[in-house]
Design brief:
The protein is an alpha/beta fold. The chain is built from 10 helices and 11 strands. The relative contact order is 0.11.
C-alpha cells in the first residue's frame, strides 16, 4: 500500500498530510501526545469509524450550509465543556469541507486554541478544505465571513472513502481539482487519481508555506471563488461549492479575456479542463440576479479595494483589485446568456 506523506512546513511548526488507502486506521499515531480526551465532529452519513486510543465522544452536526453557523459553534463548545475538553486534548473533524471548517473553527475558539486533526472524507476536503488552517462559518450576508486561521496537527486523506461518495459530491471535488490545473502548469491529466490528489495536496501545501495568512500568493488558491461564493449565497446554496467553483473558473477566464489579459485560446483551455475533462457545469443558472451577485462579490473578504478577482495572465495568476463594475456586470450578463 502506497502512502504519500506531505509535510506542511510553517514557522516553528509543521504537520503531516497523509494520503493513501486505509490511512484513517492509523489515526492513533497522529494524535497529540498530550491528548487524553477527544471529541469527534462529524455527520450521520459519513462512513468513518475510528479506533481511538483515548476516551472519545462523537458529536454529529446537521447537513447543509445553514448548519455552517455560529449557533453550531456554540453547540459544539457546550459539548466540549460537558466533556471537560482542555487545550491539551483534541478535536477530530471527520467529513467533508463543511465539517473540517466547523471543527477547525470550534477548536480555534475553545480555550483560545485546542489541537485539531482532520480526517477528510470527500475529495474537496482532501485537496483543499482540510489543509492550510482556514476555518470559518457563514452569515446570511456571505460565505465564511467569520473564522480564524488554525492549523491542524495532522490531516488524513483516506482514499478508500472516495468510493463511498455520491456522484454529485465527487464532481464537487473535481471543481477544486480543476482549479489546480491553472496554478502551476503541472500536467495533472497524466496522473492517476491517487497521484493527482497527492499532487494537489503538495501544491496547496507549497502555497500555505509561502503565505500562511493569505496576505499574498495564497490568494491564488481562491481562483474562481469570487463568483463561486456569490453564486452560493445568492442562490441559497442550491449549487454545491465545487459546482460553483467550476462556473467561477470559466467566468474568471472570460473576465480576464474581456480585460485583455488572456487570449480566447486560454479561455478555451479553461472550458476543456472544467467542462470536458471533469464534465462540470460551466454556466450560471439562468434565473440568477446579477445585481445581487455584484453586491455579494463586493462583500467578499478578499475585496479590500473594490471588486477583486484572481485573474489569469501570460505570467500566471494575479490578484486584480478595483475591477470596473460596469465591465463585470456586462460580462456577467453575457455569461448568463451564453
Amino acid at each position: 500500500m502506497t502512502i504519500h506523506r506531505i509535510d506542511v512546513h510553517l514557522p516553528e511548526r509543521e504537520y503531516p498530510v497523509l494520503i493513501g488507502h486505509g490511512v484513517s486506521q492509523q489515526i492513533g499515531q497522529w494524535l497529540p501526545t498530550t491528548a487524553r480526551r477527544a471529541i469527534v465532529v462529524t455527520q450521520k452519513e459519513i462512513p468513518v469509524s475510528l479506533d481511538l486510543p483515548i476516551e472519545s465522544k462523537v458529536v454529529t452536526i446537521a447537513q447543509g450550509e445553514k448548519a455552517k453557523s455560529l449557533s453550531t459553534i456554540e453547540n459544539l463548545c457546550q459539548e466540549f465543556a460537558e466533556m471537560g475538553i482542555t487545550r491539551n486534548d483534541v478535536i477530530i473533524g471527520v467529513g467533508g469541507g463543511m465539517v473540517t471548517d466547523i471543527a477547525g473553527f470550534a477548536a480555534s475558539t475553545w480555550h483560545r486554541g485546542t489541537p485539531v486533526v482532520h480526517v477528510a472524507s470527500s475529495l474537496l476536503a482532501m485537496v483543499d478544505a482540510a489543509i492550510g488552517g482556514k476555518t470559518g462559518v457563514n452569515l446570511p450576508q456571505g460565505k465564511n465571513l467569520v473564522g480564524a486561521f488554525w492549523q491542524p496537527s495532522a490531516v488524513i486523506c483516506d482514499l478508500d472513502l472516495l468510493s463511498t461518495l455520491p456522484a454529485r459530491e465527487l464532481r464537487c471535488g473535481f471543481g477544486e481539482v480543476a482549479k489546480y490545473h491553472f496554478l502551476t502548469g503541472d500536467d495533472l491529466l497524466s496522473l492517476d487519481l491517487d497521484e493527482r490528489v497527492a499532487r494537489c495536496v503538495g501544491i496547496k501545501a507549497a502555497f500555505v508555506e509561502q503565505d500562511e495568512h493569505e496576505s499574498g500568493k495564497r490568494a491564488f488558491l481562491n481562483y474562481g471563488h469570487t463568483l463561486a461564493h456569490a453564486l452560493e449565497t445568492v442562490g441559497n446554496h442550491q449549487l454545491a461549492h465545487g459546482e460553483a467553483v467550476a462556473i467561477g473558473l470559466i467566468f474568471a477566464a472570460r473576465l480576464a479575456q474581456a480585460l485583455g489579459r488572456i487570449s480566447l485560446d486560454r479561455v478555451d483551455y479553461h472550458e476543456l479542463v472544467v467542462g470536458k475533462t471533469y464534465s462540470l457545469q460551466t454556466r450560471m443558472p439562468e434565473d440568477i440576479n446579477i445585481d445581487q451577485l455584484l453586491a455579494a462579490m463586493a462583500r467578499d473578504k478578499k475585496a479590500l479595494h473594490g471588486l477583486t478577482f484572481v485573474l489569469d495572465s501570460p505570467q500566471g495568476l494575479e490578484v486584480v483589485a478595483d475591477v470596473p463594475a460596469d465591465i463585470v456586470r456586462a460580462e456577467l450578463v453575457r455569461f448568463s446568456q451564453a
